[in-house]
Amino acid sequence: MVRFSQRRAEFNRRVTNRLVRPLSGYLPMWSIVEHTGRRSGATYRTPVSMFSTPDGVAVLLPYGPQRDWIRNLESAGGGRVKFAGRTFAVDQPRVVPTTTALADLKTPWRQLMARAGIDDTLLLRRAS
């Protein structure tokens, strides 16, 4: 039996992402992670919910940490993000419990993430 979160992820990949991708990177919370496929070498752009941290960004993982785009970032050691109208390189991807990531966030994002009920968050450091 396919879990609800897996079906929701598939629906979002096929439908929702196509609708929000043109706005992603410009509107609060809707951003883009650009990553290179581990096997294909192709460049992919994945819409995500992203928040600023002192040294980079935090990405909510509502479908858990076992997604291909996360594996791609980990394999490559980073990628690029489009956040708040700016594009920049990121590195040192690491998945942490959302409760750990909350300390790096400003209000009101801290409260929003705390209430989202999402267990895992991906932290990405702005590459120098």
Automatic annotation (TrEMBL):
InterPro entries: F420H2_quin_Rdtase, Split_barrel_FMN-bd. It comes from the Bacteria. GO terms for molecular function: oxidoreductase activity. This is Uncharacterized protein. The lineage of its organism: Bacteria, Bacillati, Actinomycetota, Actinomycetes, Mycobacteriales.
